């Protein structure tokens, strides 16, 4: 099928084989055959969310294998001089009635677009796909239809075939990413279900043949619950589910305990692989299973001790209310890539803030023009792409009127682009991170800090939108015996509020509910209706401001360990205040569990009373002396002021410590697992946490003593706050620059542990000198507002009033950060809007009391 050239100057005339060869001769050196390891981006533009299914199709450079939409391919041609591109276009055609017999869409040239998804909005019985590929030579836009084996040179033919058959660049060998490779089962649409009256209870399952209660599979044809075997996910079993298939021929089964509102793990015995079942909700409903009532647990099995949180899922997603869809700029949804809702909730909120909009979308032409040769690996380019995708309205258009749709369908369906898929963005920002690079659910708070860290590291010149969250915390530590104090400051990006459970206003109801729940559990009856603890926000704020005990406090006034207390106050107030309700704690099995509470979060917040005051009249400061390191093997208990520590990845230590494990245990875990990362160290902790010396300092025989986090003060520290050279050397041995080490030690009173914290919270470009940084600022940000730099004048802050107004919150549904679902609510144009993956609707009942992370903007004075 010949089509007019997209740019109006294309040549559709057929050319003789000799003419084609002669035409391509000047460009042959630039045409490459993809090698193993080359990423071929044939499904998405590097600068936008255009794809082969878009109106203009996609252009793949035959040298770099980057994909570009029609709007951006000219930029790449001008920048690189590459002239030969493969143009890919998918057309959606209305089928001739009765021609398909209800089969899946017919794929013409199917191998060309192996990784393209079908449009879920279309009825597969009525439409089919026609895929078109051709070579386009710039700048004259000569078009050569493909395949054209007889007329094209052999090298060009091989290169084209390799591009067309290439796999997605996002495919991984990591077993955690198997979800990306699943295909729709051929049995899903035609599956026959026997009406035998079987109803599956929400818990208490066991294999009907051997009484096993783990690795259980529900056959979707007859409702049999049977155990699996060592063939799918590593879980044990006796293989009765497979035996049942061989006996009866019923092909599909779903793993019990994996059913969530987002889907479930489905296996096809006939196809011998994990598959997708687009009709899983209907198939489960046949056996009385409502997907909204099912929640996956951390080990893939249903936790029978946890009450189904039906109300939580329904209330937060506003399921019982008919919501009006929202379209246009700022109302664009994001596709869930498989437990990626935490990412969507955070970036939807981030890009509702004007400073982020200006930094990335406002600077989009400049960012795109100065992007590196591979823009898919550039953070600022992908942030600008994401921001434009969310804010332009280009991918959030209202549906056409029915009569217009009918007119269009008679010729060719023009797919409606609603929502974007953040696959390229997620692949970049999660690269190298053991958790975010997986397909497991994550903590939105941790991803928020991770994203802010990336913004800091990749800022353009002095422009840094994350400064709107940045504030200083003053920590006042007091020795209870000498009454002397020490004041220190640190940078933070969010306020963490503890949940004051003891202040619940409905304690009597909670006690009565707990009694009923235990009775129901003992009698194996359905649990009673959930009663949620109601916590006053004022109580959480009070708990935040109260003094807390300091473990292992060493008093420099007493030169010995003593009791100490610490209080935290705001040394500055940020422009945007992020408040996290600390709902997650650890259960007896060290699996994170969530406190299901309701907190009456205020629309207007005033925290001016938490402003730091500094050293007060009559207060006496603790001497500026660090604790010594005691070598226990020394019979005299000699105090050592210098010891060379082994190489320990402190970033992994901090990740584990933030999960609630003792700091010394975290250091041992990282050391004994060879600095292989936090995930490997976490497994070590789980295996050794019952040992009596679990939380004792790390003892290494070769060093003759203890290597403790208390090695914060190597050497006696003078009152001039000049860092000891051995401490500077220790930090530089970890890979940090000398000037960064000195700056961090000075900012933390030469406390090694706090200095490392300071470095990780000040992720500045360490490889640049101050002069080089100044030059970069002048070149890259000549027209930007110059913000205060983190240097001798202190960290960059935007101080002001402590009065705020709520404009957004992120909510979590589920039992822990390792499972469940996230949505965000944002206040736009005077009304609340819910962002639930691809669904963007006007909110009727925003559940402000059930949020997890709240976003406040400062009220101008």
Automatic annotation (TrEMBL):
Signal sequence coordinates: none
Annotated EC: 3.4.19.12
SUPFAM superfamilies the UniProt entry points to: Cysteine proteinases, RING/U-box, UBA-like
Active site: 341, 821
Domain spans labelled UBA: 647-688, 722-762
Similarity comment: family membership: Belongs to the peptidase C19 family.
A Pfam entry, by short name: zf-UBP_var
Coiled-coil ranges per UniProt: none
Organism: Gopherus evgoodei (Goodes thornscrub tortoise)
Reactions performed catalytically: Thiol-dependent hydrolysis of ester, thioester, amide, peptide and isopeptide bonds formed by the C-terminal Gly of ubiquitin (a 76-residue protein attached to proteins as an intracellular targeting signal)
Residues where Zn(2+) binds: 207, 210, 227, 240
Name by which UniProt lists this protein: Ubiquitin carboxyl-terminal hydrolase
Keyword terms of this UniProt record: Autophagy, Cytoplasm, Hydrolase, Isopeptide bond, Metal-binding, Phosphoprotein, Protease, Repeat, Thiol protease, Ubl conjugation, Ubl conjugation pathway, Zinc, Zinc-finger
One biological process term in Gene Ontology: protein K6-linked deubiquitination
């Amino acid at each position: 099928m010949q089509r007019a050239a997209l740019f109006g100057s294309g040549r559709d005339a057929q050319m003789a084989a000799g003419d084609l060869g002669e035409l391509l001769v000047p460009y042959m050196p630039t045409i490459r055959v993809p090698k193993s390891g080359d990423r071929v981006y044939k499904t998405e533009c590097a600068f936008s969310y255009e794809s082969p299914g878009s109106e203009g199709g996609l252009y793949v450079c035959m040298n770099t294998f980057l994909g570009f939409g029609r709007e951006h391919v000219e930029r790449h041609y001008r920048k690189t001089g590459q002239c030969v591109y493969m143009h890919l276009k998918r057309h959606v055609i209305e089928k001739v009635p009765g021609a398909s017999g209800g089969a899946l869409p017919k794929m013409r040239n199917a191998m060309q677009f192996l990784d393209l998804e079908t449009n879920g909005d279309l009825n597969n019985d009525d439409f089919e796909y026609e895929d078109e590929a051709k070579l386009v030579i710039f700048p004259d836009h000569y078009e050569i239809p493909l395949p054209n084996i007889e007329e094209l040179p052999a090298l060009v033919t091989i290169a084209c075939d390799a591009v067309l058959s290439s796999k997605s660049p996002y495919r991984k060998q990591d077993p955690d990413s198997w979800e990306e490779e699943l295909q729709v089962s051929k049995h899903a649409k035609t599956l026959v279900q026997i009406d035998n009256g079987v109803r599956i209870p929400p818990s208490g399952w066991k294999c009907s043949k051997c009484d096993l209660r783990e690795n259980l599979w529900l056959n979707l044809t007859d409702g049999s619950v049977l155990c699996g075997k060592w063939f799918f996910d590593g879980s044990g079993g006796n293989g009765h589910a497979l035996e049942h298939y061989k006996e009866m021929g019923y092909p599909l089964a779903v793993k019990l305990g994996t059913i969530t509102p987002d889907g479930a793990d489905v296996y096809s015995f006939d196809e011998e692989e994990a598959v997708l079942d687009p009709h899983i909700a209907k198939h489960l409903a046949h056996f009385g299973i409502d997907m909204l009532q099912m929640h996956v647990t951390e080990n893939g099995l249903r936790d029978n001790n946890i009450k189904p949180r039906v109300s939580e899922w329904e209330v937060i997603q506003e399921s019982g209310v008919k919501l009006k869809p929202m379209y246009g700029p700022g109302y664009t949804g994001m596709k869930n890539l498989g437990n990626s809702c935490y990412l969507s909730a955070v970036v939807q909120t981030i890009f509702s803030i004007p400073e982020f909009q200006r930094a990335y979308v406002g600077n989009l032409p400049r960012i795109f023009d100065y992007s590196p040769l591979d823009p898919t690996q550039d953070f600022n380019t992908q942030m600008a792409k994401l921001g434009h995708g969310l804010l332009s309205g280009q991918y959030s258009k209202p549906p056409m009127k029915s009569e217009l749709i009918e007119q269009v369908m008679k010729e060719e369906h023009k797919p409606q682009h609603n929502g974007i898929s953040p696959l390229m963005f997620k692949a970049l920002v999660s690269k190298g991170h053991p958790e975010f690079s997986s397909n497991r659910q994550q903590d939105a708070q941790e991803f928020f800090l991770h994203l802010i860290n990336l913004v800091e590291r990749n800022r353009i010149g002095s422009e840094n939108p994350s400064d709107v969250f940045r504030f200083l915390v003053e920590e006042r530590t007091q020795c209870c015996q000498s009454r002397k104090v020490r004041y220190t400051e640190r940078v933070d990006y969010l306020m963490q509020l503890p949940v004051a459970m003891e202040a619940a206003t409905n304690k009597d109801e909670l006690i009565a509910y707990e009694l009923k729940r235990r009775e129901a559990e003992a009698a194996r009856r359905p649990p009673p209706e959930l009663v949620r603890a109601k916590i006053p926000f004022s109580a959480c704020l009070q708990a935040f401001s109260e003094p807390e005990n300091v473990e292992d406090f060493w008093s420099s006034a007493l030169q010995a360990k003593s009791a100490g207390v610490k209080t935290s106050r705001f040394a500055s107030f940020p422009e945007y205040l992020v408040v996290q309700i600390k709902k997650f704690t650890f259960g007896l099995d060290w699996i994170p569990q969530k406190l299901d509470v309701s907190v009456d979060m205020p629309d207007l917040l005033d925290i001016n009373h938490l402003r730091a005051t500094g050293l007060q009249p009559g207060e006496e400061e603790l001497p500026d002396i660090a604790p010594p390191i005691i070598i226990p093997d020394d019979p005299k208990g000699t105090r050592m002021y210098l010891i060379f520590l082994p190489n320990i990845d402190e970033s992994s230590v901090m990740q584990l410590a933030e999960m609630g494990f003792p700091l010394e245990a975290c250091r041992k875990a990282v050391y004994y697992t060879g600095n292989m990362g936090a995930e490997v160290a976490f497994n070590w902790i789980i295996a050794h946490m019952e040992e009596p010396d679990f939380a004792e300092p790390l003892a290494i025989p070769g060093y003759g003593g203890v290597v403790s986090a208390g090695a914060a003060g190597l050497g006696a520290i003078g009152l001039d706050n000049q860092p000891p050279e051995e401490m500077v050397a220790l930090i530089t041995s970890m890979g940090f620059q000398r000037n960064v080490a000195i700056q961090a030690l000075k900012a933390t009173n030469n406390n090694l542990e706090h200095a490392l914290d300071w470095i990780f919270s000040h992720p500045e470009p360490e490889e640049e000198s101050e002069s080089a940084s100044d030059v970069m600022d002048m070149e890259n940000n000549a027209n930007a507002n110059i913000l205060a730099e983190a240097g001798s004048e202190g960290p960059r802050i935007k101080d002001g009033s402590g009065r705020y107004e709520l404009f957004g919150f992120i909510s979590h549904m589920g039992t822990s950060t390792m499972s469940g679902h996230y949505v965000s609510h944002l206040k736009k144009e005077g009304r609340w809007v819910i962002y639930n993956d691809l669904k963007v609707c006007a909110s009727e009942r925003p559940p402000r009391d059930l949020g997890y992370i709240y976003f406040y903007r400062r009220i101008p004075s």
